[in-house]
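Re-running Amidohydrolase family protein to confirm reproducibility after the cluster update. Everything else is unchanged from the original entry.
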Amino acid sequence: MNAPPSPGHRPLRIDAHHHLWNPATRPHEWLAGEEMAPIRRRFTEADLRAAAASAGVGRTVLVQVLPDLGETAEFLALAAGSPLIAGVVGWVDLTAPDVADVLAGLRSGPGGRFLVGVRHLVQGEPDPRWLVRPDVLAGLRAVRDAGLVYDLLTLPHQMPAALKAVRAVPDLLFVLDHLSKPDVAGGSLRPWADRIGALAERPNVVAKLSGLVTEGDWATWTVDDLRPYAHVALEVFGPGRLMVGSDWPVCLLAADYARVFATAEELLSGCTADETAQVFGGTASRVYGLG
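Result of re-run:
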């Protein structure tokens, strides 16, 4: 194992997955409930800069929160004026017949050059086969034709359909968010491990080492709780197809920004310096075309 580079010579760190929101301007129904009270407030780009500095992060990818074109347009305009946000994963209605036109419209608007990908909240779809509906597959092909990537936000029971979608559009690059949310709190690995292994066999899939702290017990989780899932991800994807994301501010339910990145460092402690640099920045830069 190689020693990590000193902080003064650390390669550029990229947070490949975070959010921003303001519940006062748009309804965020998912923030209802007492357990969400700690994050039921506005989180701004200035807040992000302060958090990112705590972990030595120099660039970020801002990911959609709501199925709302207005939010995506605002995120793109924000990125255009931010020295930190290097890319935006936005939202479009994949089932609409005009996906290509909508994407073109977003790209022609303020900050349109920062659009690097598209995501839909598949985890909330009641149909476990939503991703393989003909209209959704047509939308995914429009994303491919626009030269963008597609972020997969799925739960373990939706992974079989995700695999079929990945096979159906083999020339679209898919990014699996949060490792498809394994059951960290329950400590079970299967069938999740088998399903993520099948996804990793497809060369057009990469994954985010993100969101794990909130899949464990928010108050008592430890690095050892997360280690089996990170180990599986490293084994099946390898460092060149993994990227670290904070999932901030959602992560604040279980850990602050700096602790999330410190945890990632521990989970990657067996990797070489070059491998760690890939997970902490190189993969995200390449996949999202951040330059």
